[in-house]
Amino acid sequence: MTLEIIVMVKQVPDKQEVVIDPVTMNLNRSLTRNVTNSADENALEAALRIKDKTGANVTVISMGPPQAETTMIECLARGADRAILASDRFFGGADTYPTGLTIAATISKTGKFDIIFAGEESSDSSTGHVGPGVAEFLDIDQITYASSVEYEDGHVIAERELEGGTEVVKVPLPVLVTVLLNSNTPRMQTLRRKIDATRKGIEMWDHDRIGLQPEWVGVRGSPTIVRKMNPIRERERAAKKIEVSSIGDLVDELYEKKILKLEDE
Amino acid sequence: MAGIKFATPAANLDEYRNVFVFLETREDKLIKPALEMIGVGKRIAEKVGEKLYCVLLGENIKKEADVAVSYGCDVILGAESPALSTYRTLPYSRIISDFVKEEKPNIFLIPATRNGRDLASRIAVSCEAGVTADCTELDVEQDTRILSANRPTYGESMLAEILCRKHRPQMATARPGIFPVPEKVESPKGEIRIKKASIDQSLLRKEVLEFRKKNTVDLTDSKVVVSGGMGLGKPEGFKILKDLADEIGGVVGSSRPTVDMEWITRDHQVGQTGQTVRPRLYIAAGISGKIQHIMGMKNSETILSINTDPGAEILKYSDYVINADLYEAIPALLDSIKEKKKNLAKATKK
Ligand SMILES: Cc1cc2nc3c(=O)[nH]c(=O)nc-3n(C[C@H](O)[C@H](O)[C@H](O)COP(=O)(O)OP(=O)(O)OC[C@H]3O[C@@H](n4cnc5c(N)ncnc54)[C@H](O)[C@@H]3O)c2cc1C
Ligand SMILES: Nc1ncnc2c1ncn2[C@@H]1O[C@H](COP(=O)(O)O)[C@@H](O)[C@H]1O
Question: Which one, of A92, A138, A89, lies nearest residue A118 by Cα?
Fold first, then answer.
């Protein structure tokens, strides 16, 4: 039986070009170019490598506004078989809970799934919570922060990079895997596939098609709200200039101020 | 377990009391971020006159339960089983979600380590709670008992204050290295409730085949960090930084590209994708001061930068600036320090 692989991809504002509106302190989206979240490209590549080996079907799923279609086309052009964009005005303003809910419901609607890939985190929300949230909604196991992922008869074997070292785990399907940024080199898009994808277009699913009530999703379905955005004010530092010739004085000053301790602590 | 269910608001907010923290362990030993959670959790609990509950899972946790109590934990909610000896998502999230459903905490804090994040969002979904990721400031409003969860956003230029008004518990993960490890309390008294967990086999299908420990330096423990960047020009440059660090009781840190170039191992890296440090003295040699690096060191008490570029961004974050070649400045600094030490030794002999 063919393996069914899902990849969760998100379109994000290009980090290099983030412009913050000085009045509202919000992201000025009109001035910012959108790109595919980098770690999600690594997630797609991990999926495509399993497809190369096993002939799996790879479906990319995103929740986002219609312009996220460009990201979906890119994924098809790299080798994904199917793209579904969960897009609906009711989905806007979602925190991680309804985002996970919407994606999990969309995945359920596609029918069978064996492996779900996501990125370790998105560059704009950077929570890393959406992947595990989806796994909980779907009641399946998960492997987070994977640097390598292998499929072997009915199991995924992966290395997880943790603070103190590398953990190797083996999990039977179905499983959700979140993939580390830069853990592989995403393949190029091919022109042929790009043309096909653009011609065919992608599937757009709204809340009705997915079977979700408007009040479950988006801002209304979100337990958390942003109360305020404050610019982070750094402590002013003196940047006192020291000449190499007067480093001795600096050492004295740091010692007097107990910043530099020269006796054993 | 959750099923596709939207998040139902809590029916009665007053029912939810006390502060939970998750005590992460490695090989049944509390890790430092766990102690940080006790500190911030205790502060929040005391502000609203509630108790601090510490959630602790493992194979053999009695000793660490005592340690947690010595830091001020009021109640330990423990679960013991050989199957819990290493962290695994499903048994941990199931047991802890059950604790949450039984005890109904108002607030639940989890360290934003990799396993902490792996866990937090599963519990949030299972308990229909709101969760704010990677907080650097946490406080509670006294009258409403609403958690003020603050997290940096937009490349650390802004701090977003996030609230969860109607769902319980109010969950947050807290960035490691930000919240101080608390002092031990004078006469600790805490109630230790450890139960033997029986765990359904279906939750134990993930096998942990091995754990390859990395030889790591914990930069967050050191009072002095001497970091080098691409300005070193060559891997051997780290040698003089090491000499300086050794002389002043410090450890060597680095920027990310020096790690990517394999001049030094990743455990030395400071910054967004490395460690967050706040030593008494941070020396940045040949580091330009890009935001991803700044994020990891800007809360150091004193910052000294050494850079040939008088316009380097690091200047803004420096208390002292040596605008010179580090290969001149560092040896000079080292000589002065040795000299000073000699003079101090002479003075005490007299
Ligand atoms: C997603 C992401 C995550 C990242 N995470 C991190 C992170 O965690 N930590 C991190 O550090 N970076 C991180 N970076 C990289 C970061 O953006 C910068 O590229 C990096 O911090 C620059 O390193 P540097 O200062 O060593 O090198 P450069 O920017 O090349 O600066 C070298 C400096 O050395 C000075 N110099 C040159 N010669 C000398 C000399 N002889 N004596 C004195 N000074 C000299 C130069 O004037 C210059 O200022 C990340 C980037 C991304 C995109
Ligand atoms: N709106 C979305 N649509 C599809 N996938 C998403 C969405 N948001 C997050 N993800 C996935 O979840 C991962 C973690 O995102 P985050 O929790 O926002 O840091 C991302 O790398 C994506 O794979």
Answer: A138
